[in-house]
TrEMBL record:
BP-aspect Gene Ontology terms: nuclear-transcribed mRNA catabolic process, nonsense-mediated decay
UniProt keyword Transferase, yes or no: no
Source organism superkingdom: Eukaryota
Organism for this UniProt entry: Lasius platythorax
Record Gene3D superfamilies: P-loop containing nucleotide triphosphate hydrolases (3.40.50.300)
Alphabetically ordered keywords of this record: Nonsense-mediated mRNA decay
Protein name as annotated: Protein SMG9
Pfam family, one: Smg8_Smg9
Taxonomic lineage: Eukaryota, Metazoa, Ecdysozoa, Arthropoda, Hexapoda
Amino acid sequence: MMLPTTSKDSEIKDGENRTLIKIVERPTFILKTREGESRAVSPSQRNGHKKDTDISSGAPTKIPDSIRMFSICPEMITCIKFMDENMQLCENPIDYLSDQQDFLVVGCLGAQGVGKSTIMSLLTSHYLSNIFQVQDLSHYESDATNCTTGIDFFISKNRVIYLDTQPILSGLVTDYSVCFDQKKATTDFVNTDSNLELQSLQFAAFLFSVCHVIIFVQDWFIDPNLVRFLQTAEMLKPSSTTIMDQDYVEYYPHVVFLHNKVELQDFMPTIIDQMKEFYNKIFSSSRLQTHSGIDMSHYSIENGLNLFLIPSRKEDMIFCENGKSLIDKLRTKIHGVTRNPMTPTVLTEKSWYHYVSKVMEAIKKSHLSSEYGRLMP
């Protein structure tokens, strides 16, 4: 509403001169709030008021997607078959995997009877006992076969995947018909021992591609053939990507040298130093990550050799640090290891499973693997 404009005349006397000044008053505006319209509220006040209302109303909060995914995944109570002895990937494990990226894969390699499954069962014993079947004398007498054929799979609540493999270079594994049907028809791979070694190398090369940590179990120090085996498996490992990317560094896992059933005298510092010197020289040019600080020290030593000794049961009672304590330490250090990306793209648990399938196919069709098998004596 606008009021009429009025004017005033005033005379101001300055000395003897008189000047007439005309003063015009400015218009005045009066604002009136419309009926039915509430007072304007700033966005921050409006949001804050809404937030307070939501909290006071007791509305249920949204559950994070990661927690929801874990609740959907069934919990495992024992290991299941991940890959059979003919290198055929099984489908059941994917039911236990989720679409989250924070996971760790631990594999185990070793010869017949060194205690691979025992070590894996001890590492998972804080969840359940005897998750991986352990071989004993009665098992040998009943059917004279391995407890573990192919690869067994178990995933823990904190998303650690354990892969227990059949023994490497084991004469008890005799069925290779599926893997080598075409090759057996030719003059190649006529030697059963050659087939045995090649299949073991393929299993090892496979684990080198899909695991963050490999536990290489031995029960004595040291078999030169096993050292040569690891070096050959590293050579046969397929590339983790087909894309030429200068910034990408080829993936290689952490390898832990674990000596099982160790006698008391082998814990002497001089003996341990000899072991370290041997491994440092043999794997000086290797791209396997053998110095990740996964050792028996109480504190992680940067660039320390991944060496662990587990005492035999008869020595367990008199040794200052028993086997259980060492297993707990091994588990803790494995869980805290750096998880380097296996591929240029970040993998989830489920996409890792699909990547596993591609790796296995690449190993089976590898020209380098075929040539190595053909040239074997």
